[in-house]
Amino acid sequence: MMLTALRRLAGRAASGTAHALWRRLRAAAAVTADRPGPYAFHHLGERTRLAFPQGTVFGERYISLGARCVVGQDVTLTVGMAPGLDLGPGLRITLGDGVVLGRGSHIVADAPVDVADDVFLGPYCYVTSTNHSYDDPARPVGLQWPRAAPVAIGAGSWLGAGAVVLPGARLGRNVVVAAGAVVRGEIPDHTVVAGVPARVVRRWSAEEGWQPPLRTPAPVPWTGPPPGE
Question: Is 45 among the domain residues?
Answer without folding.
Answer: yes
